[in-house]
Amino acid sequence: MSRETSTATGSRATRVALLVAVLLTGLVLGLDAANERSGLPESLRTAGATVTGPVLTAIAGTFPAPAASTLTETELSARLSLAEADQAASASSLSLLETEHVTLLRASGHTVVLARVVAIGAVGPTGPERLTIDVGERDGIGLDQSIVSIDGLVGRTVRVGATTSDVLIIGSPDLVMGARADASGLLGTVGPPGTSMPAPRESGELTFTAIAFGELGEGEVLRTIGSPDNVPFVAGLPIGTVSRVDPSRGRVGVTAAVTPAVDVGRLDVVAVIVPGTSTDETGE
Question: For the chain, what is the domain count?
């Protein structure tokens, strides 16, 4: 007998057995319903179960078991996503360490401690005002240290725990920093928009207020001028770009709208600048 014939015969036998099982079950249930008060003899019920039970079990065994790959598909997918995220973070870390402003800081004797953003706080007029990173005192982090990304200044640390730190983000009402325009050399401050700006600001824009008159052009990059002992800000970090210069209207100094260098909503890997040491976490 060929394999195909054997398979067909087995299939017919299975169908016949199933039909017999269904008929026997129906017969037992019908008789039981018809004699609801007296009930079926226990021997008949037992006989029905004896006949139909093995048949139904055998039929159930003909269905293929779920593949092992199906059972672990969710787990494998989660592991793959995690691996891809770790790979992306590693690539971002390397790119950050190779960024010009970070390379200069490392060459100047500052420690660069890499971290990842694990939470973003409430949103204010210019965007999120705080975030949390996954490094803290155990990693050598302290208060009032600069946080940077591949694009520029993110903010400064305002709370440091054992393993996490909170960062006050550029644009927050409590954060104003000294700045210098690259091309014109104008000095001033960058902070959130005030209530008496000569021109309205777009969502997320900051304001540069120069301390003197001068020629400030659109597209100029603003950088930190630094703080005493590099606390809270080291010098030379990109803050943002002048998007529009406000009309003077009799004002003492020049003001301008500034587009931040960093998009906080897209942050993942950042670096904490620990002033005054000669090594970084890569050991280089």
Answer: 2
Which pLDDT value is given to residue 126? 72
Residue 65 has what pLDDT? Answer: 60
Q: Are residues 228 and 103 in the same domain?
A: yes
Which residue carries 């006050």 as its tokens?
A: 168
Domain boundary among 33, 61, 89: 61
Residue 108 near residue 129, CB atoms below 8 Å:
no
- Is residue 122 pLDDT above 50, yes or no? yes
Using an 8 Å Cβ cutoff, are 155 and 175 in contact? yes
Please give the structure tokens belonging to residue 205.
Answer: 């824009």
Shared domain check, 112 and 48: no
Range of the domain at 121: 98-274
Of 153 and 284, the structure prediction assigns the larger pLDDT to 153
pLDDT in tens, 184-206: 999 999 999 876 677 888 888 99
pLDDT at 2 over 90: no
Residue 237 predicted with pLDDT over 70: yes
Quote the pTM value.
0.68
